[in-house]
């Protein structure tokens, strides 16, 4: 086995001096993501600047049987970017440039290390819009978004990251550079390999560039926060608004989520009435007629008893303030050492599914506090269990592993997914069979063997071969 010093010398001979770090600080920072379960233990950290440099590192790693872990913004929640087994980490931070922009095609090609928010700002400067958005947009990177097929708060209107990827440049586990789809909208020439790499979590190869579709920016986004007495009522509200308006977002959160956010960030509650659940509704109020329709729907929901109170934004600042009630939840509960589950079912099954999960946790783990929030408009719920003060982190995560087994069984019974948007990584690898059939898993293993025959690409993540 090559020592870290030998790896540093060899890789810097390929890509240049001062591009590999071995110090403890770097090993800790770049060997982890947002999860707290696995202790990072990488062998070395490399900082390539181009696709060709990534290719050189992959060929070197393949020759010497060194496992590679790609590292983006390290905001993942499935331990997909954790290097815990002497891997060489490829940090994409310096591959953050705009490569090309075409206003006619409304497309932009960027390196994989570009931060999501920077892409959003670039699109805005061109009078366009990149709609994939979530709380970690200020630090997540495009390559990581694509590798996990990130979703976020606008999926109900704009879809997942997959829907915005026109082309990819990747380096496979064999060291080959593939230029996939080349930005074409129509390309009916066989298998679309681009989509294999979207959501593959770096297990087939490393994404180095992406060509992304842009669209027109939304106009006069307006936000409502509505208090509902039950989850079935929240779904009635969703149905009522969707009948009359095209929504850009429909989120929900529980009252204890709201209580923690308002206390931690010293924010005001949206209204005095406390309700078990809250819906955040966003739409484009481009005309007075649309605003009138929104108010009509709100009043009808009040009359039906689905909503007990509500508020509507009167400015962009107020809209952002209301969004903060939802967007600050993840950061707020991170101080409580949460065990997070990212689940999805078809929208119509959400209330019954949530009730069954809630009932199981309350019956078998009465000391656990549960915080719910999520992208309810597309059936995506985030189940967060907060660590009790009297439990060690190790004991808590061990108990939660057993919770997950039952929760995922419920998810399977509802025909849902054990990972709606966070990926599989290390944390959910053992539970993949709850969503994928054995035949599917074997086919996925076959695909990995084709692109990564020596098993050097993020090994141990998603699949065990």
Automatic annotation (TrEMBL):
Q: What InterPro entries does the database record attribute to this sequence?
A: FAD-bd_oxidored_4_C, FAD-bd_PCMH, FAD-bd_PCMH-like_sf, FAD-bd_PCMH_sub1, FAD-bd_PCMH_sub2, FAD-linked_Oxase-like_C, FAD-oxidored/transferase_4, Oxid_FAD_bind_N
Alphabetic keyword roster: FAD, Flavoprotein, Oxidoreductase
Give one Pfam family. Answer: FAD-oxidase_C
Q: Keyword Flavoprotein: yes or no?
A: yes
Per the record, the domain of life is Bacteria
Q: Report the residue ranges that make up the FAD-binding PCMH-type domain in this protein.
A: 38-217
Gene3D superfamilies for this protein: 3.30.465.10, 3.30.70.2190, 3.30.70.2740, Uridine Diphospho-n-acetylenolpyruvylglucosamine Reductase, domain 2 (3.30.43.10), Vanillyl-alcohol Oxidase, Chain A, domain 4 (1.10.45.10)
Q: Which cofactor does it need?
A: FAD
Similarity section = Belongs to the FAD-binding oxidoreductase/transferase type 4 family.
This one is known as: FAD-binding oxidoreductase
């Amino acid at each position: 086995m090559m020592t870290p010093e030998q790896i540093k010398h060899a890789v810097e001979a390929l890509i240049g001096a001062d591009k590999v770090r071995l110090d403890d600080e770097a090993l800790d920072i770049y060997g982890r993501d947002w999860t707290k379960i696995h202790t990072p233990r990488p062998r070395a950290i490399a900082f390539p600047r181009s696709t060709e440099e990534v290719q050189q590192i992959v060929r070197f790693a393949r020759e010497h049987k060194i496992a590679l872990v790609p590292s983006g913004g390290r905001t993942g929640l499935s331990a997909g970017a954790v290097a815990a087994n002497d891997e060489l980490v490829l940090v994409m931070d310096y591959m953050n440039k705009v490569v090309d922009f075409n206003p006619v095609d409304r497309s932009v090609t960027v390196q994989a290390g570009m931060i999501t928010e920077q892409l959003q700002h670039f699109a805005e400067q061109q009078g366009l819009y990149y709609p994939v958005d979530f709380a970690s947009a200020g630090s997540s990177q495009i390559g990581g978004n694509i590798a996990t097929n990130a979703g976020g708060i606008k999926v109900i209107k704009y879809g997942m990251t997959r829907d915005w990827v026109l082309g990819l440049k990747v380096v496979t586990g064999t060291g080959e550079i593939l230029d996939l789809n080349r930005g074409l909208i129509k390309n009916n020439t066989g298998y679309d390999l681009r989509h294999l790499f979207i959501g593959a979590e770096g297990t087939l190869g490393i994404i180095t560039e992406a060509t992304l579709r842009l669209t027109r920016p939304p106009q006069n986004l307006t936000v409502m926060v509505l208090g509902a007495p039950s989850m079935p009522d929240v779904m009635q509200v969703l149905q009522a608004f969707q009948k009359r308006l095209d929504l850009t977002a429909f989120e929900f959160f529980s009252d204890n989520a709201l209580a923690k956010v308002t206390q931690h960030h010293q924010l005001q509650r949206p209204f005095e009435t406390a309700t078990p659940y809250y819906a955040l509704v966003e739409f484009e109020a481009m005309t007075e007629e649309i605003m009138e329709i929104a108010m009509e729907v709100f009043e009808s929901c009040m009359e039906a008893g689905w909503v007990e109170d509500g508020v509507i934004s009167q400015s962009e600042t107020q809209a952002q303030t209301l969004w903060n009630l939802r967007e600050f939840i993840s950061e707020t509960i991170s101080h409580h050492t949460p065990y997070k589950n990212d689940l999805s079912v078809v929208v119509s099954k959400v209330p019954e599914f949530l009730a069954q999960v809630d009932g199981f946790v309350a019956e078998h783990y009465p000391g656990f506090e549960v915080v719910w929030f999520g992208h309810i408009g597309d059936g995506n719920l985030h189940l967060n269990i907060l660590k009790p003060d009297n439990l060690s982190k190790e004991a808590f995560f061990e108990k939660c592993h057993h919770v997950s087994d039952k929760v995922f069984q419920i998810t399977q019974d509802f025909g849902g997914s054990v990972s709606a948007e966070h990926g599989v990584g290390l944390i959910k690898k053992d539970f993949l069979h709850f969503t994928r059939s054995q035949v599917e898993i074997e086919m996925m293993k076959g695909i990995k063997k084709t692109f990564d025959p020596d098993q050097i690409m993020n090994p141990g993540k998603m699949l065990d071969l």
